[in-house]
Amino acid sequence: MRTGKHTIPPKSSAVDARFAALARMGEIVFHARDAAVIWGITNVNTLHTILSRYARAGLLFRLQNGLYSIKPHHALDPLLIGSKAIHGFCYVSTETVLSRAGIIQQQVLRVTLVSSVSRQFRLAGHNFRSRRLRDIYLFNETGIERAGSVRIASSLRAIADMLHFNPRYHFDASAHIDWSEVNRIQKDVGYVITRNKNI
After folding, report:
1. Are residues 175 and 99 in the same domain?
2. In whole angstroms, what is the distance from residue 51 CA to residue 38 CA?
3. Taking the model in full, what pTM does it have?
């Protein structure tokens, strides 16, 4: 709300209560609809007004339409940004995990995720790619770990995922991969079993 050239700040008691509710839920990046549920707001116009007011006051940071953060863009983990932008079950896998584990040597310029949608996008200065995986495989959490609000595939699950998407994919550190464990994950998830690529 503005009076002349000045913005009237939100009432501190209401702000404190709402941000305390976010903190209890562990939400750093959240969708407007999530805030509505957490704050118990049913009126869309009221929600929009509150979020806009908080953003103008520097209490929230808008990442894109309907997606907000309690931290500025540069202070956010890009894995968290990508996971929240998908707004559905997803996990970090394939090239991002393989590169970090040293299994592939190529430079990976985008965060790669697996979800129920195929999508490429840019957000908060980062590039993202989501590969679509059938629900029967997607919701099988074998080899998937949690780091805060982000699900991340183990290196072996990431290998299994990549071979599902591209059976001819080349792994630079193939000789150091435990293929029996990869096969175990493939079997547990329901993927086609891959023959040891070192043979």
Report:
1. yes
2. 13
3. 0.86
